[in-house]
Batch of 4 targets.
Target 1
Amino acid sequence: MANFPDLPPRVGSMGQPVPGFDVSVVDEEGSVQPAGEVGHIAVRTDPARPWPPGLFRGYEQPGGGLDTSAFKHGWYYTGDLATRDPDGYLWFVGRADDLITSSGYRISPFEVESALIEHPAVQESAAIGVPDATRGELVKAYVILAPGFQPSDELAAELQTFCKAQTAPYKYPRLVEFCRALPKTISGKIRRVELREQSG
């Protein structure tokens, strides 16, 4: 995706697909999703078409061979989720393996984090899903507080109420844990898998 000189940028959008590549938002069966629906960002690899230039054929495995599970239904599934607006701009939702499913709702941790960071007490946050017998998963937020704020049950409740007002109420974190640091990769991305392991 990119914003070309003659393409007006939309703040927060990933832009539109690069010419020459058929990129869309599809469901698990490879059907293109209507505008506004969350789906997988996918690159078409339909054998009837020329293979997209620069696109690899699979992930090399340690023991040899290629893992081609990301290629299905004539598409390469990138692992990212997004929505597409009526004009074709893509809007990032999150990584497919980070998506939280609670009470039948699909919740992007990015949405929860974006809501929490608007609160003056929050310096940084990370959201994950933790197992729950009733809802499937609960949204849990790890929060690093800004200077001058102290952890408390009252502040946790305030952040939950604030998050409800910033986004859909069902997306608020039912669990809030204050912390001093978040596990990250060398490039600075939050290691949600490590947070999930910590949560058991």
Target 2
Amino acid sequence: MADRISKTQRWLDLIACLVGRKVPVEVDRIMEAVPAYAEKYSEADETARQTVRRMFERDKDELKKLGIPIETVDLTINYGTEAVKAYRLSNRDFYLPYLKLISPEAAGAPPAPQQQKLGQLHLSAPHVGILHDALSHVSWIPSSPLKREADSALRKLTFDLSDSFQAPDFAPVLYVDRPGAGETRARVRTLSDALLARKRVRFTYHGIHRGEDTERDVAPYGLLFQRGHWYLIGHDSTREAVRVFRIGRMEEPRANTKAPKKPDYEIPEGFSLDEYRDRDAWELGSEDDETLEARVLFEFPTCLWADRNGYGVLEEEMPDGSQVRSFKVRQVSPFLRWILSLEGRARIASPAALAAGLRSLAREVLAVYEASAASVSAGEISSGGSDA
């Protein structure tokens, strides 16, 4: 009988056996209560019993990985004369708290009895709008590694607040995957699992400027989605320093499989992704990428705007009020596009190669617009000839 029961059913039976119990459940009672275990465990053969116990341990570990916190506790039986292992799964740990939309005057209102048991999370209308907006945008992107989680959170938000919250209407979004989006999604999932388990990862990394592949051994500290790319920030043992890696340049990231239940490292207490999140597009990339020191002349009053928004470091102020500001550039293309968008109110003073790159980009943009204008003019002439 037991071999006909699927793993999913076995897991559900185990959860049903444990959830909501007021006292922990001894392992022998679990073996009797879960049908997939009971048949073989009831046999006198000790080998069969050990096989079932190993199956139970695997099921318990896999459920924990899925976020179901089955807790192991020490229990005394027979009036305290015998110590055994027991297991429990409390309602508070298993079920998510209820979400409740509140107004300022209702903040102190007591929750309903069932909600008191499971807890309640109070949210204001502005916060719910922000949450729904963010989750919807992630959910709409098919290639997002977090789509599954966003879908689940949206279901929870909609179910709990369906009577009191009207989700805003959004215009449909058309999204085109970048080339290699599927591979990137798989890498992010591998790295995310390693980060949560605090396991080191190894991968081959392609440095864009040096043009060489190197093997890296990294302790993941965080994942960041910025400017359309995913980045891994972590301590690189081969460089003995914290480094930033673009995930699109990785090959075959793999987590350390030794001692899977034991973390390999701890994230330093002072580490924060905020330092990396606020970087501009040209500052992102691997720490191994070549860094250019660019000096840009900002005309007055554009220099005041640059200073107020923290663009660059002031190097020199001219008599006419203009300023030379320095930048550390890892990504040349986004930096040149940004300077070009300032419509001549900022000019690259050095290095000369970067200034030449800006002039080349400007010529390319001009050529595109000239070709478009010529095409429109040709169409108008042809149309005029047919009307005549």
Target 3
Amino acid sequence: MISQTQLTWYGQSAFKIITPTGNVLVIDPWLTNPKNANGKADLANLKRVDLILLTHGHSDHIGDSVEIAKTTGAKLVAGLDLATAMTTVLGFPSKQAEMNTTPLFGGEVKLLDGEVTVTLVPAFHGSGLGKDDESTPVYAGQPSGMIIALRDGPTFYHTGDTDLFSDMALVSRYNRIDIMMVCIGDHFTMGPKRAADAVRLVDPRMVIPMHYATFPVLSGTPEAFDRELKQRGVKAKMRVIEIGETVSL
């Protein structure tokens, strides 16, 4: 058993959370993204994963989910429509993507003997899913963010891919957010300015930038994000995690 929550970033929107009791969660696990030089080794070293959490159906978020599921037996936590697309189109094991772990917006699911509570919240983006870049995308439900509350640990808000929208302020009405992982890359999501306004609405204790620099069009930077936060007087501490780095919370 470990006493602290551990968080690892693999680049883009991919994170691993190890809970205080040692359960392992991965979020949008594209470990083998082009910015992670150790991606193949990181994937091979994932000997235990209990839950795979997916915000939406784009390939840079689904990433290595199917391989992880087949090698570890991890269960899928995602919107019901996305889970259906994952099993029927991509071959995610259907017994690991059943209704008890696949909610829809606003519904809480309590998992791993109640240690983890996940709530889907809206995100403004797309969510088409295909087998490869040449396939015609199929409907994969609405994109989401995720509130991940750990018993005896922090509460995370992973925004997924999204634009700024005013109802982000409602997230904190129901959950005090300790750590907000927020997309800042621009082009496909919020850039630093809008991301800073999103943080101001949510008012987390700590903010971790993600979804930047993986491709040239994702031009938002942590430095620009930090400037925007300071200009707005945001109190949240910004923590930049390097790819492959693990921090204890």
Target 4
Amino acid sequence: MPLPALKNRFGAFGDMLYRHANGLDNSPVTPPGEVKSIGRETTFEEDTYDITFLAATLHYHAERVGADLRALGRQAKCVSIKVRFADFTTITRQCTLPQPTALDQTIFQTGKELLDKAQAGNKLAIRLIGIGVSSLREPGTQLSLINSSEHRLEKLNHAVDRIRDKYGFTAIQTGRTMQLKSLH
């Protein structure tokens, strides 16, 4: 649309519309800021009480968040969940971890514990569920002389990431998320 027509219709705003539509902008280009948090959430087509389905969805999101963390070369100190109930009440709960992590399993387990507490005594179905991490930092964990399972899980997560990078995220699924495959 010509500039005079836009100015006539929208006034000074028409000039801005014309400049933006034609890629004319003198403002400086600034790169995006540092990532402060990572999260994933899903709004369901139908509200649900199914705790197995909710756990599978939460696990899937925890895997995505963990993969995003590892791709950024970061670890998180805080895990949070978001739950929206059928009456549109929305709650968030968070937990600060003793050690920063990028492990899918730790992110999920913490999120699941938060979900269990959030659901305690609540009779409403769930409409939305999400999980996120914050307080991101550079990797660097205290080495454990006793527990090597975290090291094995870290190696497993990285191996799964390499396969998913090559063949797509759903190329490998955990047993907990297999229930979701029939829904895609």
